[in-house]
Amino acid sequence: MSETYRDPERISLAAAVSLAGTTHALTRIPFMVKGVSQIAAPTLQEQQNRIDNDLRAGLAGIMRGMCRRTASLKVVCNPFRYRKTDGTAGYYEAGATELTLTASATNYVYLLHGANTLTRSTSGWPADLSTFTPLAIYVCDGSQITTADEAADARGLVLYQTMPVLATVQIGDASGASPQTVTVQVLDGNGQDLAAACLLQLGVYQDATGAAVATDAIIEVGATGSLVRQVVADKVLICETSGDGTLTLVIADAVAESLYLLAAPCPGARLLDCRDAGTVTITA
Predict the structure, then answer these.
(1) CA 12 to CA 175: how far, in whole Å?
(2) How far apart are alpha carbons 115 and 94 in whole angstroms?
(3) 111 and 185 part of one domain
(4) How are strands ordered across the β-sheet holding 199-205?
């Protein structure tokens, strides 16, 4: 389906005349004064250049990160700043570096965060949305780019995106003699097992708010998942789930008591909803 556009409702000619010499409320760009001649002060050219300068200053911000065609099958991307999922800032400065597109194909142009490089693919966007910024989609024939820059612009995928539902950490409960095994499952936004390995922090605590680390109990990674490092020895661990978002923890305790397993995001982890808590009751 091709794009369609409709002219907006415009003000009347009388209303336009009444704007002479006033300033637009939001942009603070002035309207031309009526009846200005070439010898007036300021002159028509001076007034027009002031307005044009204001308009160009606004457009400069919009054009950051926009791709432009430069030659047959070549594009560049204007410098721009972006935010990575780990919270750090990125800055693409190589606005004069050309990227060669693939002939007779649809080219998806994006900035790859890890290498901070302009990249293209003919098979669509990367699967992991956290690793790149989408910029443009160009269609090419055998020797030329056939898509205009403004039509290729795909930055709206970031500007107008619907934020994904957080991945949710689900922690099981257990009760019985020491040791006890608990399953931790990371779910995607649809409530299904996350089809990816996931980093998360897990700890055993005396209370449901995580104010005090367990005194006697210890935890270790069970048969599923792996230990990345220990934050508090045998008490708070950073772990990686298996490829289907599953992790098992083994809790051992020398005394009979109720304990709480709590999760938290860790550096390098995806966005997680960690509100669930697991209760482990060790019986005598």
Answers:
(1) 76
(2) 12
(3) no
(4) 174-176, 277-282, 257-264, 199-205, 236-240, 226-232
Residue 96 sits in the same domain as residue 49: no
CA dist list (Å): 18 to 44, 86, 222: 18, 51, 76
Instruction: Show the CA angle centred on residue 122, arms to residues 118 and 123, nearest 5°.
Output: 115
Residue 82's closest CA among 46, 39, 131, 42? 131
Contact 218, 235 (CB under 8 A): yes
Collapsing DSSP to helix, strand or coil, 276 comes out as coil
Closest CA to 118 of 83, 154, 86, 79: 79
Pair (270, 194) in one structural domain: yes
Model pTM above 0.85: no
CB 110 within 8 A of CB 126: yes
Domain co-membership, 85 together with 106: yes
- Cα radius of gyration rounded to whole Å, the chain: 29
Q: Is residue 2 part of a domain?
A: no
Alpha helices of the chain — where are they, by DSSP H? Answer: 13-18, 44-62, 149-152, 156-159
Position 4 confidence tier, pLDDT thresholds 50, 70, 90: confident
Q: Which domain holds residue 49?
A: 22-60
Residue 5 has pLDDT above 90, yes or no: no
